[in-house]
Amino acid sequence: MPIVSDINISYQGGPNMKQPYTIILTIILMLLMTGISMAAKVPAPTDPPEGVKIISINEANEILNQKNVYIFDLRKEFSYGKGHIPGAVSFPYKWARKDADFKPDGDIDLSKLPVDKNTAIIFHCDGPEEWKSYYTSKAAKKAGYTNVMWLREGYSAWANKGYAVEH
User: Fold this and answer.
1) What are the C-alpha distances in Å from 115 to residues 92, 105, 111, 143?
2) What is the pTM (predicted TM-score) of this model?
């Protein structure tokens, strides 16, 4: 009769009888490890979509002092309500895609964007580990916007830098 204690498996039979248990235990552990690795977070993009410019917190602060510049906050409404970059438009991103080959056609509602496609627009979310601003800037560029910027560092870096925040 097998005696199971923690991970140690003991069987009172002959030496060849342990082999099936070892194989089964190995298979179970491999399946568990595969599941864990598949659930790992997909790394955020480091390069902008084609035609989109990454800007720093300092650059964003300078650009936002100019006229005819829009900044869109892609975080959830709750996060936006707790604090946002002055003048930012709440533009919550609803999708949870995590791959650079995402085709944003029809998945992102761009109706809040300015009619003039030459207007400077900045997209941001919470920080560099997010895909939301990547996808939305990609969709805006594909829709014909010519001056699309991605504040990759996001709201967290803005607030940590000590720049003004609205509530």
Assistant:
1) 19, 18, 9, 11
2) 0.71
